[in-house]
Amino acid sequence: MANIAIRKDGGEQVQQAGHVSEWDPFRMMRNMLRWDPFREMTQLVPEERMSSFMPAFEVKETKDAYVLRADIPGVKEADLEVTLTGNRLTIGGKRDAEKQEKHDTWYVYERSYGSFTRSFTLPPGIDANAISASLDKGVLTVNIGKKPEVQAKKIAISGEKGKS
Fold first, then answer.
1. Model confidence over 22-47: pLDDT tens digits?
2. Would strands 13-16 and 57-61 be described as parallel, antiparallel, or unpaired?
């Protein structure tokens, strides 16, 4: 439709549809922001690598444990693996793509699939026997307990008594 010319009754061309005769800096900026310099490279990269699945993690420290959480919808418990080697925690898994039928018409394909692996270096003082992992409604939660000797302890403060 961008090449359709609008003509008046006399047959003279007034303007092309979608073509603005004046310079518009805002239009130019919108076009520049929409430009993706890596789009031309997508033919060089295999499709599996372009749409790889990499969940985002939250890591927090509580008074008695470290807690890691990740949103991994569509990943089955059997497709997950959590391992601890020394102070290195490794979480890996995969989310399989849906089968695409040849007669289906896809308009948008934005979900990502594939395998992922994340490794975290844990601080000293973790209790390797106090690690648990659970998967609930697409959220993976890994709790790593701290050894009692590295947990913060509240120390009572005694005041001066009997002095005046």
1. 788 888 888 778 777 666 665 555 55
2. unpaired
Residue among 72, 66, 118, 120 at smallest CA distance from 95: 72
pLDDT digits (tens, 9 = 90+) for 107-121: 777 778 889 999 999
Token output for 16: 């092309």
CA angle centred on 119, ends 113 and 125, rounded to 5°: 150
The C-alpha atoms of residue 91 and residue 122 are separated, in whole angstroms, by 13
What letter would DSSP give residue 99?
Answer: P
Give the count of domains, the chain: 2
The domain that contains 64 carries what CATH number?
2.60.40.790
**CB 79 within 8 Å of CB 93:** yes
Q: Are 99 and 121 in contact (CB under 8 A)?
A: no
| Mean pLDDT along residues 66-82 | 93
Question: Is the confidence at residue 13, as pLDDT, over 60?
Answer: no
The reply to whether 13 falls in a domain is yes
